[in-house]
Amino acid sequence: xxxxxxxxxxxxxxxxxxxxxxxxxxxxxxxxxxxxxxxxxxxxxxxxxxxxxxxxxxxxxxxxxxxxxxxxxxxxxxxxxxxxxxxxxxxxxxxxxxxxxxxxxxxxxxxxxxxxxxxxxxxxxxxxxxxxxxxxxxxxxxxxxxxxxxxxxxxxxxxxxxxxxxxxxxxxxxxxxxxxxxxxxxxxxxxxxxxxxxxxxxxxxxxxxxxxxxxxxxxxxxxxxxxxxxxxxxxxxxxxxxxxxxxxxxxxxxxxxxxxxxxxxxxxxxxxxxxxxxxxxxxxxxxxxxxxxxxxxxxxxxxxxxxxxxxxxxxxxxxxxxxxxxxxxxxxxxxxxxxxxxxxxxxxxxxxxxxxxxxxxxxxxxxxxxxxxxxxxxxxxxxxxxxxxxxxxxxxxxxxxxxxxxxxxxxxxxxxxxxxxxxxxxxxxxxxxxxxxxxxxxxxxxxxxxxxxxxxxxxxxxxxxxxxxxxxxxxxxxxxxxxxxxxxxxxxxxxxxxxxxxxxxxxxxxxxxxxxxxxxxxxxxxxxxxxxxxxxx
Length: 537
What we know:
Domain Amidohydrolase: 53-532
Oligomer: single chain
Strand order of the largest sheet: 2-6-19-22-23
Low-confidence stretches: 494-503
Number of helices: 21
Shape: globular
InterPro entries: Amidohydro_3, Metal-dep_hydrolase_composite, Metal_Hydrolase, YtcJ-like
Structural class: alpha/beta
Protein name: Amidohydrolase
Keywords: Hydrolase
Pfam families: Amidohydro_3 (PF07969)
C-alpha cells in the first residue's frame, strides 16, 4: 500500500481544515509526506518563508482523503470504459444499449457489461439468451447483474466453457449463478488482454482520485478476478502516482495469499451470495422464492480459516450478507477464539464485508470478536425502503432490519465504509449521506460518524490507527473541496444543536441533506503528492 512521500514542504492557508487537533484550523503545513502542523491563519505567517509552496485555499475545505474499503478495481474500470447498464429503465432499453455497444466494438473478443437490474424494470424480466444472441450477432457477451452475483450471457460465451450446463447455478434460459456464473466469468475475463486490463485499472484509480479518494481496498480472489489482475494492480499502484491500493485476496490458501502480496486472506471469501440474486443465505425462506439461498462456507470452515490466518499473522475476512451467513461467521469466530484465544482473534482485526442482515446477537458477536464491519450504505439508498428490492426479497418487516449502522456503532463495532464498486458507484459523500439518511430512521448515524467510517475507518481496517485524520505526524492524504457552509448533522436534533455551539469544539462538515449539492473535489493528495487537480482550478 506504500507509495514514496513527497519531499516538498507545502503551506495551505485561508481555508477550513477538518482536524480534531484544532476544530477552528484554517491552515496546515505538509512536510515529507506528513502533516507537520495545523492551526490558525495568524500562526501560519510563521511558516510562510520556509516552505516550497503556498496554496491559497480561498475558503475551500480540507479533509482527510477518503478510503473506499471495498472495490473491484478492474471491473470498475471496465464499467467506466465499457457498457454501463445501470441507467437502463427496461429490458428493451438494455438490449438497445447492448446492440449499440456491439456495433461500436467490432473487434472485441468478448463484450462486457454491468449493472442491469430487472427488479427495477416494468416486466422484471432479464434479457434472455436468444435476445442477447440477436443483439450481438452471435458474439460472446457477459453482462453482470448490479450485485455481480449473477449474469446473463450469450450462447457464444457458453460455448467457451465446456460442461457449464452441469455446474450448479446453470439455467438454460435465465441468469447464471453460483459455479456456473464463476465459470463464465473466468472465461469472459480471460478474454480481456493485459493492455485493456491495465487501462481499466488506471481509469478506475483516476476516477477515484477525482472524487477525493486516497485509498482503495481491492477485494480480489480466484472466483472474482485473476492473480495477474491482482498483482498487476498492486504493481501499477506502486509505480504511478494515485490512490493507495490495499490488496485482499479471498483464498483459503494462506501461502498463496502471502505470495501475492495481499494484506489478508479476506474480502469476498464467500460465505453466501447476494439478496438480489436470491443467493444470500437466510434462516427463513425468501418472500419471493421458496428457498433460503446458498451457503458456500460453514461455521467450521470459518473457524478453520480464522485460526489459520490468526496463527499466520494475517487478516481473515468474509463476504456475508444473509442472517444465516452472518451467524455462521460469528459461530466460526467463537470456535476460533476458543482454540487460539480471544485476545489473539481480536488483535488480528478480522473483517466482514457487507454484513447486511444482522440480529442483536450477531452485532454483539461482531463486538466481542473485534470484527470490522466493511459496509456499503449505498446499498440501502438503492434497495431499501418499502418499495425496494429488499422488501421484494424479504418482506417489509425483515427488510427494515437491514444495515443497522447505529446498532453497530453503539455496540462498539468498527465501521469501514465502501462502495463495492462497480455494484454501486464510487461516491464518498453520497455514501455518507446514505448512512446519515438511511431509509430506516433507527439505523441512521451522524454525518460525523459516517465521515469517520469513510476516512479513518478504512485505515483502521488495515491496522493503521495513525492515519485518515489530519493531525501532526499523520500521512498527508487529503482532499480539497468546494462546498457551502459547514454544519453539524446528527440523527438527534438535540445533539445537532449542542454540536453546532462553538463551545463544543466539533468541526463542521458539508450539508448532506438529500437534494443539497454535494462537495466538489478540487484536489487530491496522497502522501504529499498531488494525484488529482480539477481542470480549470
